[in-house]
Amino acid sequence: MLMNLSPIRLLHHIITSLVADPIVILNKWRGIPSYLANMRKYASLNRIPSFALSFRYLYPCLADRFQEAGTVRGQYFHQDLWAARKIFQSNPTLHYDMGSRMDGFITHLLSFRAVTVIDVRPLYSTISNLDFVQGDMTQLPYSDNSIESLSSLHVVEHVGLGRYGDQVDPRGHLQAISELQRVSRPGGRLYFSVPIGTKERLEFDGHRIFEVQTILKAFNQMKLISFSYIDDQGDLHECKNPSEVPDLRYGCGLFELSKN
């Protein structure tokens, strides 16, 4: 729960949830002197009329100068690559995804294969290679043992909390896992991730954080093919024994599973 956070982190979380990130605001104020100095320098150097400074078209980006070029760490970065690589290598006839992030993992998949995505929320856009089905993960519209290749990344921890317009159900995560097992074809593959930590808990209405053994126990119809995890610093540790996971506050478990 939020009360497990330190007072400073808890205050920061509340402020960013209700108003704005104070660090971003601070960096914007820090960027004003550089912005004004660059503006003056540009005006004195520019000799291209079509790109002359105009107050009408000013577009201050004050905090960008304090950011890194990008990131090659973190849960979404590593899990998306982890699952996309495995699906590319296995090259299934069809692949289905249950609720994973559209502008991350699904984007990776669409670059090399067609994907059917099921999500409780609507999708009003269309794109090549994407077949979208609006549906409830706790009641999947597919028959038993029918899906050869299936993924669900950073999804089940939300099911039943009402955060995304779904029904409130304290056992929603278990029902979702039951459905994933039901529709999986024996011998196929399920690529699954959820937050993991040493202390299992609910941080309402954001997500649940699971112990690794809770997930393995819930998937009682499936065997574990491979396991990796992402630690609290956002670094990936591949092909590890689940019993060797160190103490984590908010990590991510990556489970490759197959139905018996």
Number of domains: 2
Biggest β-sheet: count, sense, barrel? 8 strands, mixed
Mean pLDDT: 92
Query: Might you state the CATH topology name of the largest domain?
Result: Rossmann fold
Question: What does this protein structure show overall?
Answer:
By secondary structure, the chain is an alpha/beta fold. It folds into two domains: 2-66, no CATH class; 75-259, Vaccinia Virus protein VP39 (Rossmann fold, 3-Layer(aba) Sandwich). 31% of the residues lie in helices and 23% in strands. The protein has helices at 7-18, 22-45, 75-90, 102-110, 172-183, 212-218; strands at 96-98, 115-119, 130-134, 147-153, 184-196, 201-203, 207-209, 222-230, 236-237, 251-259.
Keywords:
alpha/beta; globular; 2 domains; Rossmann fold; 260 residues; 10 strands
Write the layout of secondary structure elements.
Layout: H1 7-18, H2 22-45, H3 75-90, E1 96-98, H4 102-110, E2 115-119, E3 130-134, E4 147-153, H5 172-183, E5 184-196, E6 201-203, E7 207-209, H6 212-218, E8 222-230, E9 236-237, E10 251-259
Parallel strand pairs: 1-2, 1-4, 2-3, 4-5
Antiparallel strand pairs: 5-10, 6-7, 8-9, 8-10
